[in-house]
Amino acid sequence: MDVGLGLAIENTGLYMDTRKDKIIRPNKSYFSSKMWAKEREDTTLYIQCRVRSWFARKRAFQLRKIRDDKDAELRRRQEELQ
C-alpha cells in the first residue's frame, strides 16, 4: 500500500499489510479534467450558437415587421391620393 510517501515507509521499519489490498480502476465513464473541460467547451459553444441564432431570428422578424409596416403605410397613402 502506497500512502504517497513512496519507499520512505519501508525505510522507517513500518510494516503495512498489503494482502487484502485491492487495485481499483476507474470505470469506462471516467472523465479526466481535460475531457471535462472539452465537454464544457463544446456544450458552451452549442448553447451560444443556439442563443445567437435565436437572437438573429428575433431581430430578422422585427426588421421584417418594420419593413412590412412601412410598405403598408405607403400603400395606404397612395390609395388615399388616388
List the helices and strands and how they pair.
Layout: H1 8-11, H2 33-81
Describe this structure in words.
The protein is built from two helices and no strands. It has helices at residues 8-11, 33-81. The model has no long low-confidence stretch (mean pLDDT 85). The relative contact order is 0.05. It is mainly α and 82 residues long. The protein has one domain (8-81).
Estimate what percentage of residues fall within beta strands.
under 5%
- What are the secondary-structure elements, in order, as H or E? HH
* The number of domains: 1
N-end to C-end Cα span: 98 Å
List keywords for this structure.
82 residues; 2 helices
Nutshell version of this structure?
The chain is built from two helices and no strands.
